[in-house]
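Supplementary Data S3. Sequence and structure tokens for construct A.
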Amino acid sequence: MQNTDYRDDADGRMLLYKGPMVLVGPDTGVELEGEIFLSYLPSPTVRFEGKRNEAADIEPTVKHRLRLPASHCYAATILHTELQLEPQSSTFRVRGRVEGRLDKPAWNNASSGRFLVMNFPPILGRPIEVGRNWSGLARVSLSSDQWRIDIDRATDSSKRLERLKESGGFAWTASALIRRPDDSRFSAEDFCDALDGLFYYLSFTAGRWTGLCLPEAYDAADDLVGDNWTCQPTTPYRNVASWAATDRPECFEQPYGQFCELYADPYWREVLVIAIHWYIEANNQAGKIEGSIALTQTALELLAATILVEQEKWISHGAYDKLPAGDRLRLLSKWAGIPAGIPTELNELVTLANDKQNRWLDGAHAFVEIRNSIIHPTKKNRERFKQHSTGARVDAWLLGLWMVELVLLRLFGYRGLYVRRTARGAATALETVPWAATPSP
């Protein structure tokens, strides 16, 4: 969508450079002719291939640098070398990964930046036009005090997503343009910091790691002033649940400003990075359902301690440490405006909670009891674990992730619609966040 022409070649990769390069080791440099390209498998990675007519002594286990004619220099890891002997000639080939730019640009005069977004969901966004050949509801516009970002779905995103749905894997499905709200200039450091924050924010909206790739910076004349051939981690494509509805661009847009305010604070940045990390891993079932419940509890405990003790000062450190885990989550739910009861759609968890041997008080109590039977494998808990059906554990997993999503959305000041994952795809799944739906007393 943006000015940069991103195209994949017939081999399913994106060519970034073709020409002479020098592979520099500890003792000497080896001149090569080759290519640098973005490869999507086994994960989005910038790679290089080079060749020459004479063999070279290259030690794969040591660090190398890959130097290009324009003085650009990248860290390189050697993956493979081979010498092909033929009757009249020989060809020496080297293959490897490009790990990131070593001569990091120190520019301070960028007016805009561009990059790709990997495996971004197909959002029905704002209307845009691209030349005379394409128009559609394809834009998500994010804004904060520091940045405004337009993320545009790829013109061929339907084909890309069909391929991803069939085989999983990776593809860039959107491109983005970033500027200052007042069009002022920014530095390389500011640009990189903005992309780091955006990575966590977009991953939270998508429910999986959504990496940003191949960032480039341009001056006011639209001339390239800096780039870095890197890709952030990305989850292989598959359908996962998320609170953000893909036909509601405001879900992606509205929380961004307050997220940026928190992320700018080093204290809150650490909390958000850790909480979103555990949320994404749990949402993608790291460690199956049982392990994901434990990860979800970790995120909730972090948020509870940060909000209840350190931010709101509802309770002292000493008193918090003495509280049972269920009471901690109950207080956190109270702060966030999350209904205390177990959603009725989680019928197996509701049945288990109401069993005469349990009589769990509410959702926080039920979640913690399920989690304790997994994490604390005493003989008593092992017996309790056997009595918990797989369906009840799935219900607890959904309940915990729902709580994490709502706590984060409350932190980000969001008051719009969201997908309530506990509704399991029912018609009532799209609803207003509970603290905005219920009038204040």
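Construct B, processed identically:
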Amino acid sequence: MASPEVLTVSTRVGDALRAAGETLAVAESCTGGLVASRVTDVAGSSDYFERGFVTYANRAKQAALGVSREALDAHGAVSAEVAAELAAGARDVAGTDWGLATTGIAGPGGGTPEKPVGTAFVGVARAAPWGSGDSTVDVRRHGFEGDRLAVKAAVAETALSTLLEHLEAAAVD
């Protein structure tokens, strides 16, 4: 069972989405569905949660969400560029107001000096009205410590907290 703190963040995300009448889709690589699970731990999440994509392999990222071969080749799956394409792809394929994406290296192997184990990128994409030019994608890089499960949990919690920041800022606009 998720910790009470995580459920609190998930509940707050749900409350903010419901209050705004907005919807969410998630694209996950390193978290393997954990973000979607945390979102749907909240009763009534079908009011705002559209779907989740677990796109672990590069081919899946391309086929399901339109992540470009160029971004994958030039920057690797664990990069700001791919996180941005994942978040925007989830939002656009699902037709939601928000897209949330995670990509990272949970370990214990796979790290490099430039991207050590625990490196993760969280992307948040917001759809604005057509023609406004105000749609956005924000990506943040993070570093976490711990074993594989600890890193995955930290990335999922951070993704939800980051989304909540964006939802709260949008509510003020």
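Helices lie at 4-20, 34-40, 58-65, 69-75, 80-94, 148-172. DSSP finds six helices and five strands in the chain.
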